[in-house]
């Protein structure tokens, strides 16, 4: 029996930003989803005011 996890990844950077952290986090999320896990991302909104969540 496989256990499906509900995961939340928190990062200050996410694609389309191009850097090592953004690319690694995206690959991690893709890999986890491919294995059947639910993955949610929390990060600051790019180019917007402070305190807004990207959903």
Give a brief outline of the structure.
By secondary structure, the protein is of the alpha+beta class. It has one helix and two strands; from the N terminus they run βαβ.
| Beta-strand share of residues | 15-25%
In whole angstroms, the N-to-C terminal distance is: 31 Å
| Largest sheet report | 2 strands, parallel
Global structural class: alpha+beta
Shape: elongated
Helical content stands at 25-40%
* Low-confidence parts: none
Compute the CA-based radius of gyration.
Answer: 13 Å
Record the strand order, biggest sheet.
Answer: 1-2
Structural domain tally? 1
Question: Tally of extended strands?
Answer: 2
Averaged pLDDT, please?
Answer: 88
- Number of helical segments with 4 or more residues: 1
- Secondary-structure element string: EHE
Q: Key terms for this structure?
A:
55 residues; alpha+beta; two-stranded parallel ribbon
Describe the protein in words.
27% of the residues lie in helices and 18% in strands. It has a two-stranded parallel ribbon. It has one domain (1-55). It is elongated and about 40 Å long. The protein is built from 1 helix and 2 strands; from the N terminus they run βαβ. It has 55 residues and is α+β, with helices and mostly antiparallel strands. The model has no long low-confidence stretch (mean pLDDT 88). The longest helix is centred in the middle third of the chain and has 15 residues, at 20-34. Helix 1 (20-34) links the parallel strand 1 and strand 2 (38-42).
């Amino acid at each position: 029996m496989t256990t499906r996890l509900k995961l939340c990844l928190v990062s200050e950077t996410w694609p389309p930003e191009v850097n090592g952290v953004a690319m690694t986090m995206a690959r991690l999320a893709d890999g986890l989803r491919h294995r059947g896990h639910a993955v949610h991302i929390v990060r600051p909104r790019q180019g917007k005011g402070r305190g807004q969540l990207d959903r």
